[in-house]
Amino acid sequence: MKQKEILLFGASGQIGRNLIRKLTNNNYKITAVTRNIHQAGYILKTQANPGYLKLVEIKKFDPETIANLIKNSSICINLIGILFETKKNQFRTIHTDLPNLLSQLANKYKLKKLIHLSALGIESAKDSNYALSKIEGEKKIKENFSKYIILKPSIVYSVDDNFTTNFMSLLSKFPLMPLYYNGKTKFKPIHVIDLVEIIYDMIENKNEKLILECIGPEEFTFKKILQILLSSIDKKRILLPLPLPLAKLSAKILQLFPSPLLTEDQLRLLKYDNCESGIYKNNFDLGYNTNKKFENEIYKYSFNWKTGGQYSKQNNLEGN
Ligand SMILES: NC(=O)c1ccc[n+]([C@@H]2O[C@H](COP(=O)([O-])OP(=O)(O)OC[C@H]3O[C@@H](n4cnc5c(N)ncnc54)[C@H](OP(=O)(O)O)[C@@H]3O)[C@@H](O)[C@H]2O)c1
Q: Where are the beta strands (DSSP E) in the chain?
């Protein structure tokens, strides 16, 4: 029976959880790194059969600790990413310094592969600190280690995402939703299962020095995405274009919250389309024909946000 050792950073996230299931079902042994075993342990442990998943708690990116983990692995996958900064968690530390360290160690301990998740649509976003830190991280990896695979997905969606589910919660509760940049920013959402299939193939097959943009089969404006979500949860809401000065002011206020809905940096990033850049190959160029359709997939879980659904403002229990 084939068993390979994979070291996975950011395993408890949306992509990580789905990837663990795919890999362990195919006899890979995973060492999953998390910051808090008590918070993430129960989410992670249920994703794999006994014996296929080991959990390691790391509070900070200490080079010696990470070196010891890398030494015992053949493939390292980095899924750690943040969408907003806090005093403790800066874009630079997470998106640049960590990939730098991982790729240096990957080189030192002669790993077979380092697979790193970056992001799509960041090349032109020169005014976004998120984008700059992700690009700098890609650069460090390319400088340090030749057997890299950098994947750059558009928005990744599924029943356990932070995107469609959050928007359906907001849309089911509030009468209106602001549209930034008139809702014209374009996306090519990719389903998490399609992305996991691509990552799996990257692990199984020989792909080195590869930067690949990962997109779904359809292109939507942000407004269209909201309209699809609304129609899927049977709600009618006002989608209100917000003038830029007002949008900036709202981001300034919202970013003061511990888990902000919008930050100034995210608002700047939202200006740029999240579609293939033409600079790199995308999954379709390599024959990964992602075919899950956004509307069909949303329909499979949106019932939770419909009236009477588990996450709707008024669920069945309240109604009784
Ligand atoms: N989801 C998308 O739509 C999307 C789109 C484009 C690119 N990406 C990139 O793909 C990667 C994975 O995405 P995802 O959606 O699965 O991410 P996610 O759900 O946000 O989870 C990422 C994981 O990173 C770890 N993490 C977060 N902050 C950390 C910190 N300060 N220090 C150490 N670990 C930290 C967390 O693990 P623990 O809490 O267990 O430590 C978390 O589970 C990220 O790099 C992201 O930028 C995602």
A: 5-9, 29-34, 53-57, 75-78, 113-117, 148-153, 156-157, 176-179, 186-187, 190-191, 210-214, 220-221, 238-241, 281-282
Q: Which residues line ligand 1 (CB under 6 A)?
A: 10, 12-16, 34-35, 40, 79-82, 89, 94, 117, 119, 153, 155-156, 163
Per-run averaged pLDDT (10 residues), the chain, 320 residues: 80 96 94 92 83 93 97 96 95 98 98 97 96 98 98 97 95 95 98 98 92 98 98 97 97 94 96 97 97 97 90 59
Indicate the helix (H) or strand (E) that contains 195.
Answer: helix 192-204
**What type of residue sits at position 292?**
K
Residues 15/196, Cβ–Cβ less than 8 Å: yes
Q: Do 11 and 36 meet the contact criterion of CB atoms below 8 Å apart? A: no
Q: What is the best residue among 38, 39, 61, 80 to mutate for testing ligand 1's pocket, by most ligand atoms within 8 Å of CB? A: 80
What predicted TM-score, i.e. pTM, was given to this entire model?
0.95
How many angstroms separate the alpha carbon of residue 245 from the centre of ligand 1? 30
| Collapsed DSSP state (helix, strand, coil) of residue 297 | helix
User: Domain for residue 126, yes or no?
Assistant: yes
Host domain of residue 47: 5-161+189-214
- CATH code, domain with 210: 3.40.50.720
**8 Å CB contact between 43 and 18:** no
CA distance 107 to 252: 42
Q: Has residue 249 been placed in a domain?
A: no
